[in-house]
Amino acid sequence: MADYSEIKDALERKDDHQLKLILQRTHKCHKDTLLLSLVRIKNKLSKETLDLLLKKGADINARDNYGMTALIHACRSGSLEYAQWLTEHGADVNARDNSCWTALMYARCYGSLECAQWLTEHGATINASGNDGWTALIYACCNGSLECAQWLTEHDVDINANDNNVETALMWACTYGSLKCTQWLIEHDANINARSSAGLTALMLACRSGSLECTQW
Q1: Position 181 in a domain
Q2: What is the pLDDT of residues 69-112, one digit of tens each?
Q3: Where are the ANK repeats (predicted)?
């Protein structure tokens, strides 16, 4: 098995060439080395080195202490190239971390539409929700990401899905004053009269948060 300290040193220095040399002369590496590599080197490894890591026994679905996989980290940082490589080599597109977040949810939360599109095309569950009940659409609307909200609704997302407080994407769009997302959701049949567990509608939440444009629209 490769000397872990050697691998760690190469990763800390972001030395792809040295890491490749270490892997070429070893018979086996730690199963979590691929994940460690992606995290430590900020997704700067060559595909040749990644292929070597797999060949030497790295587990493509290994998890860190937060339950995050290499694919989740790649999508969180918006690295489409590595998200593609990972899924093409068997990464679980629906793996969840300790908060029940999937790679798709991270892609949406951090604004990586390309990663989200790739994941969905390769079997990611579009209506998945975390421990708080938040879906990718809710995150997109909270961030005011109209492009993301449009893409999700065009791909059969549940527009009226609610979180643990029975609050929908429309309610969150109104809470954060995202007029464009609010308009888009209503135009695509979001329930404007739905109530949260506290009995509040989207209009009430818009008024409470001072989102004047949303209330007028």
Answers
A1: yes
A2: 999 999 998 999 999 999 999 999 999 999 999 999 998 878 78
A3: 66-98, 132-164, 165-197
Range of the domain at 215: 131-217
Give the CATH number for residue 172: 1.25.40.20
Residue 103 domain flag: no
Residue-by-residue DSSP string for the chain: ---HHHHHHHHHTT-HHHHHHHHHT-S---TTHHHHHHHHTTT---HHHHHHHHHTT--TT---TTS--HHHHHHHTT-HHHHHHHHHTT--TT---TT---HHHHHHHTT-HHHHHHHHHTT--TT-B-TT--BHHHHHHHTT-HHHHHHHHTTT--TT-B-TTS-BHHHHHHHTT-HHHHHHHHHTT--TT---TTS--HHHHHHHTT-HHHHH-
Count up the domains in the chain and report the number: 1
